[in-house]
Write a structure and sequence with these properties.
Elements lengths: L3 E5 L4 H12 L4 E5 L12 H4 L9 E4 L4 E4 L1 H12 L14 H31 L5 H25 L11 H10 L13 H11 L2 H9 L10
Parallel strand pairs: 1-2
Antiparallel strand pairs: 1-3, 3-4
Helix pairs in contact: 1-3, 1-6, 1-8, 4-5, 4-6, 5-7
């Protein structure tokens, strides 16, 4: 089996989700790190735009099937369809209830369309916006915390070990990569006891620790 290629950068959460899935499924992969911007090694530069015309990571290349995927959900769904025949990280459509299948989809969608984007916007206004905009920062902080309220409630319903009551799944990887960024967004999560317990447990998984050690040390895609 040839190594897959994961295109990433060292700070954004989304490539980490994909890497965690590959580590969990023992899929061999190589990493290529890209920078922000439009330089030779930039995600908006001509080299990366040949891989993903949207100019964002992650992107995933599989030389075994000639498939090229981008957007974290598309990458993860591809990996699960192709390399997780035993459904270790997602419900088995042949045995799972309709509600279990919907729950998997709805919580993934909640992360990718709501919690993740709210955290991303918060991080932007905390760290990167050229002009201070406290109204925008306050709005995205409020929305991020509202999403944390929702997640806290779900973890209490599920028993706390995983987002879904059926056990640990790719949904947990989706959420972990963004929720663990709370301190970067300067969020106070002191009242979220279930989230804190879940974060600690997921963060202590060997495969998760391996990803957070591995990606920042990877080589740049374009050298020089």
């Amino acid at each position: 089996m040839k190594n897959l290629i994961l295109h990433a950068h060292s700070t954004g959460p989304n490539p980490y989700k994909v890497a965690m899935v590959m580590e969990n499924l023992k899929i061999p992969y190589d990493l290529k790190l890209w920078d922000f911007g439009d330089g030779e090694n930039g995600v908006k530069g001509r080299n990366f735009l040949k891989i993903n015309e949207n100019g964002r990571v992650p992107a995933l290349e599989d030389p075994n099937t000639s498939v090229l995927a981008w957007e974290s959900s598309a990458c993860i769904n591809y990996l699960l369809r192709t390399y997780d025949a035993s459904h270790t990280l997602s419900p088995d459509p042949s045995t799972a209830s309709p509600q279990d299948l919907v729950d998997y989809d709805k919580w993934t969608s909640f992360l990718t369309t709501t919690l993740g984007p709210m955290m991303g916007q918060l991080n932007w206004y905390v760290h990167y916006n050229a002009v201070a905009n406290e109204d925008a920062r306050a709005r995205y902080e409020q929305q991020a915390l509202r999403c944390f309220d929702v997640l806290e409630g779900q973890l209490k319903k599920s028993g706390g070990a995983s987002v879904l009551p059926g056990g640990f799944s790719a949904v947990d990887y989706h959420f972990f990569a963004w929720v663990v960024e709370y301190s970067y967004g300067k969020l106070d999560i002191g009242k979220y006891e279930a989230i804190q317990t879940w974060l600690k447990a997921v963060g202590e998984r060997e495969k998760v620790k391996k990803v957070y050690e591995k990606i920042p040390k990877a080589e740049k895609a374009v050298q020089g």
